[in-house]
């Protein structure tokens, strides 16, 4: 009998009548109440894109009663009167979604006790989706950098003289030349930020406002993916180090003045071995840029499966998000 049993271990499960494959989890439906910023997009397939099975994302509001979760984009929520009226199934999650900083997220009041989950770039969100992250490489490899023809670049589309980033740029550009691209500067090479910045040794990854965890594609795509050393202005150095290695970026707070930062950039420009140390992370990691918005929608399905029936109510968005 033992011999017979050991032989059956090598048989496909369909040939073992006393065993059965686990049933696949029931499909989940995520209803997107508003498409972000009113722009219609083709919904991606969660299975094909992220290997997340049994996840259906729809904008069809007739699915309201049957949806496992309803996703609400904050920038399209002018006031509470725009939320669905009437009762909702007890197990249905209402998810508040926002990827703008608190400085650009007005009207956070008036919805106390409405949402079940939060989804944002903040690490203490119920569903944490950063703008990017470092992914481990399958095997360590050599660091290869594109040829660097120029020193320092910046891509900006929203110019505001009151922003700290513009003020710092004004001061820094007195001591080192910065090539400015975008709406207020030079045209991008082949209309690509990555291809443009890849020619430069350094990139100004300056955020439009400074808040905890608010580290956007300016770091992940514009700098790291383009193989330029990011010069960052945003949250504290310690906050950045929660996401990337300490020796992979330069923080403006490391210098007592823009003049000293400029001097350090020129020093690294002349010292190849020290400059290349800023790319030691590439031996073990690659930079992943979050795919807007498919990755966010599909991540909700993962959260639904992981959470089970755990109850949760967001008491007050304002104090939490502004903290």
Report what the structure shows.
GO terms for molecular function: 4-galactosyl-N-acetylglucosaminide 3-alpha-L-fucosyltransferase activity. It comes from Pleurodeles waltl (Iberian ribbed newt). The chain is an alpha/beta fold and 323 residues long. It has helices at residues 2-8, 46-50, 164-172, 193-197, 217-225, 237-240, 258-270, 272-276, 294-307, 317-322, and strands at residues 28-32, 55-58, 69-73, 93-97, 117-120, 127-128, 132-136, 150-156, 179-182, 200-206, 229-233, 250-251, 285-289. Strands 2-1-3-4-5-6 form a six-stranded parallel beta sheet, with helices on one face. It has a five-stranded parallel beta sheet with strand order 9-8-10-11-12. It has a two-stranded antiparallel sheet with strand order 7-13.
What topology does this entry show?
Layout: H1 2-8, E1 28-32, H2 46-50, E2 55-58, E3 69-73, E4 93-97, E5 117-120, E6 127-128, E7 132-136, E8 150-156, H3 164-172, E9 179-182, H4 193-197, E10 200-206, H5 217-225, E11 229-233, H6 237-240, E12 250-251, H7 258-270, H8 272-276, E13 285-289, H9 294-307, H10 317-322
Parallel strand pairs: 1-2, 1-3, 3-4, 4-5, 5-6, 8-9, 8-10, 10-11, 11-12
Antiparallel strand pairs: 7-13
